[in-house]
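Researcher: Next entry: PTS EIIA type-4 domain-containing protein (Endomicrobium trichonymphae).
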Amino acid sequence: MQNRINNLLKSINDEDGTLILTDMVGGSPCNASALTCRSLNTEILSGVNLPMVLSAIFSSKNTKTVSDLAEKVLLDGQKGIINVKKMLFNKIK
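Model: Predicted structure:
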């Protein structure tokens, strides 16, 4: 898996860097991607949710660096985690 990720990233050859989104820390995709951080301009976010995916898609053209994109996607993902019961109960008060 690590070789496939490296080959894919090299074929993309994006000088601005690449954001990698993985499902969970310690999982095979995350572990295999982690080694690319040393040699390639990559950022890896793990624990991805749908708001993060949408943020990555729609914000990729509006950020200067892959590090800025990773930070925005991370914050958007955190904002998407909500206790709906508490949100609804607090609005009723």
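Model: Note for the record: The two ends are 52 Å apart (CA to CA).
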